[in-house]
Write a structure and sequence with these properties.
The protein has 439 residues and is α+β, with helices and mostly antiparallel strands. The protein has 21 helices and nine strands. Strands 3-7-6-5-4 form a five-stranded antiparallel beta sheet. It has a two-stranded antiparallel ribbon with strand order 1-2. The chain has a two-stranded antiparallel ribbon with strand order 8-9. Helix 7 crosses helix 8, helix 9 packs across helix 10 and helix 9 packs antiparallel against helix 16. The longest helix has 15 residues. It is globular, with a radius of gyration of 23 Å. 37% of the residues are buried.
């Protein structure tokens, strides 16, 4: 471990020298888009330089393992990781089972904010390990840790990467540890991502009083949090979601990252990538490639939306989008190719902070029949019914109606409903063999 820390410190000191900035660090590109990628994201065969007689390849292999477990206080009744991470909000997470281990059923591995995380929880803590990370993107290639006094995050010239990462660029590196930045940076990312500033237990109690349908779901689907995601990733993931299911959407998102993102690290035989930039998806060759990869008609929408966003200002367009009210943001999103009312509402809810947004898909439309008996014989959602359903949810559940709808959506997902049913059956007289078939 001392060797790893030594190499990590040496690499941090060299991050902004010409010898490091000029390194070609992507196997898929002749030039690394982010010249300040952290050690984890650099291929071992890209380096032959020695520092203190230690080849960087050696440091890479040592640092490509998970760091120690860290934690922040978070009561178990405020966060349920499984339903939150695997319930159709994000498509970058999966159950984690360490090599050679038959447990860790409640650990999850995934990517957000250019970091590969492993998460788990106890009754009072959210615990995390960092598997790999990239340094905070900085288009100006400026090391703000060396000039924090001139860094003005609240001005128009601030780093636009903040639009995607949701936090300002750190002004110092970690010292004497195995992370690039102080632990407070990672805790801030987690708090924002899971919206831990919101007292969810209080909202659940309010929603239970609003309608018996929520009361019946809340006991089994407690502490489902509404994620606050990268709007770029969120937008393109939900273009992939059209007429699709979670497993296939996740596969498509992984293909986008593998083909157009930057590699963060390899861990336990799996390579992890960040989500691509808008520019990477706007290239004219993207549509044909995505069709080859099985995206179908979605390939056109992904490339054309990326191209339009790029011409509208790329991240500056997203920055302005984040400042619009719900109706204006929704209308702006509808101007993009392939984005209809439901996808626009998903983006408003999951990455723009409009917690009153109600994405009405077939699941939610069926749920709405608990509130609108007149829909009982309807099978398909008309434009008029879409508005009626969304307004009804907002009337019942208030300003956080979109969050309440997310809880109900999870309760209707087959993967969670079947697991809950099988848990009940464990104490019944039915043979285990039949239970396994149901799950």
């Amino acid at each position: 471990m001392k060797l790893a820390r030594c190499c990590n410190s040496i690499f941090k000191a060299a991050l902004h020298t010409n010898s490091v900035n000029d390194i070609q660090c992507s196997a898929r590109s002749n030039k690394c888009q982010n010249k300040r990628n952290h050690l984890f994201g650099i291929e071992s065969n890209d380096f032959s330089t020695k520092y203190c007689g230690i080849e960087i390849q050696t440091a890479v292999s040592i640092m490509s393992v998970a760091t120690k477990w860290r934690s922040l206080l978070c009561d178990f009744n405020q966060l349920q990781l499984k339903a939150t991470l695997l319930g159709g909000q994000s498509f970058r997470w999966k159950n984690h089972k360490s090599l050679g281990s038959d447990q860790n059923e409640n650990e999850f591995i995934g990517v957000f904010a250019n970091i590969v995380w492993i998460l788990r929880q106890t009754e009072q803590e959210l615990q995390y390990r960092i598997v790999g990370e990239q340094s905070y993107p900085n288009g100006a290639n400026k090391d703000v840790t060396k000039s924090p006094s001139v860094y003005e995050p609240n001005t128009a010239v601030s780093n636009l990467a903040q639009v995607r990462l949701k936090v300002v660029e750190p002004v110092e590196y970690a010292t004497g540890g195995d992370l690039l930045y102080p632990a407070s940076y990672y805790e801030q990312l987690l708090r924002i991502y899971f919206r831990l500033d919101v007292d969810l237990e209080q909202h659940y109690q309010q929603w239970i009083k609003c309608h018996e349908h929520f009361a019946n779901s809340a006991t089994k689907f407690y502490a489902v949090r509404q994620l606050d995601q990268d709007p770029v990733e969120n937008l393109f993931c939900f273009i992939c979601s059209q007429n699709n299911h979670i497993a296939r959407i996740s596969d498509m998102v992984e293909k986008l990252c593998r083909n157009y993102g930057e590699k963060i690290c390899e861990y336990e035989g799996t390579c992890y990538y960040n989500f691509p930039s808008v520019a990477a998806l706007a290239d004219a060759s993207v549509e044909a490639k995505l069709r080859e990869l099985g995206f179908g008609y979605r390939a056109k929408y992904i490339q054309r939306s990326a191209d339009k966003i790029l011409h509208l200002g790329d991240l500056d367009w997203f920055r302005q989008l984040c400042q619009l009210d719900y109706k204006a943001a929704h209308k702006e999103l509808l101007s993009l190719p392939g984005i209809g009312p439901k996808v626009a509402d998903c983006i408003c809810l999951m990455s723009l902070g409009h917690l009153q947004a109600i994405p009405v898909d077939t699941h939610v439309f069926q749920l709405a029949k608990h509130y609108l008996p007149s829909l009982a014989k309807s099978q398909n959602v008309t434009d008029r019914q879409y508005v009626t359903v969304a307004d009804k949810f907002r009337e019942i559940y208030g300003e956080y109606a979109g969050w309440a709808q997310t809880v109900l959506f999870c309760s209707d997902l087959r993967q969670f409903r079947q697991r809950t049913d099988s848990d009940v059956q464990e104490n019944s007289d039915k043979p285990r063999k039949k239970q396994k078939k149901k799950v």
